[in-house]
Amino acid sequence: MFSNTTEGFEEKTYLSVDGLKLYARDYGAGNPSASASPPVICLPGLTRNSRDFHQLALILSKDPERPRRVIALDYRGRGRSAWDDNKQNYNLGVEANDVLTACAAFGITQAVFIGTSRGGLILHLIAEMKPELLASVVLNDVGPVLELEGLRHIQAYLANPRKPRDWDDAADLLRELHEAEFPALSADDWRGMAHAIYREVAGGLAANFDPAIAEAMVATDFSKPPPDLWKQFDAMSQTPLLVIRGENSKLLSRETAEEMLRRHPTARLITARNQGHAPLLHLDDVAPEISSLLLLSEAKPAQGTRC
């Protein structure tokens, strides 16, 4: 069942290097048992926010045998973080630095990172910028090569002008846009996705991000593929890696996923059945696979993980 998205965590804020107030959800921060292992830091997609990880964060932070501290971030311009007046700052480099700032603010020197879509691209940059921060990595339906079909699909739904009237209408809209790729989702899952994406405003609901982010994506020319990130991916070669690919994904191809396995000596690949881009991580057997990866991270000492 769809659980309350306002319980089970502490709200935290910190300042970016340029003074923006940024937001995070902190699950399990007060549990001494959770502090024995590296925390988990969750990085959402392009226009998404920390609420995407709520169900997974509850699973990991409330595990009866190995509870984990889980921190889910809102990038600048998303969720409850401040919008940036300089719209050029909505880029991977700035956002990667914001993630490093969050780690410093929360006293974290090493963590397990889960990156969905854009979050995974940010992790490619961090692998070059500060590889010692990565105890292990989960790349959720993203890799060094992005397929044009998937990028154009994202453009298309971000350009959809329809705004939902209420929460039921929001769930119906999301199902209308994405059901073909996500037959695995139940009515509760669609409602949960709606509560993760939208916020209440006068007269209805609005997507919970700065519209400039979507406008920039919609205006991007994808006549040619963007540069690949194989060099950055190779910087993860010594880091335990789990790659999750949605069975119906248009963004991460099977060929790219297989090449990732070939180039990374210990990477594992799982398929999120009956899901597209990007898979919900609490469904099917995905969460247990993530828990298995967390055990590998315990081989690396967890230092400086307390606030």
Walk me through this protein's architecture.
The protein has helices spanning 54-61, 92-105, 118-129, 148-158, 167-178, 187-197, 211-219, 230-234, 254-263, 286-297; strands spanning 10-15, 21-27, 40-43, 70-74, 111-116, 134-140, 198-201, 204-207, 241-246, 268-272. It has 307 residues and is of the alpha/beta class. The chain has one domain: 3-Layer(aba) Sandwich (Rossmann fold), CATH 3.40.50.1820. Strands 1-2-4-3-5-6-9-10 form an eight-stranded mixed β-sheet, with helices on both faces. It has a two-stranded antiparallel sheet with strand order 7-8. β1 and β2 form a beta hairpin. α2 (92-105) crosses α3 (118-129), α4 (148-158) packs across α7 (211-219) and α5 (167-178) packs across α6. The longest helix is centred in the first third of the chain and has 14 residues, at 92-105. The protein is globular. Residues 300-307 have low confidence and may be disordered.
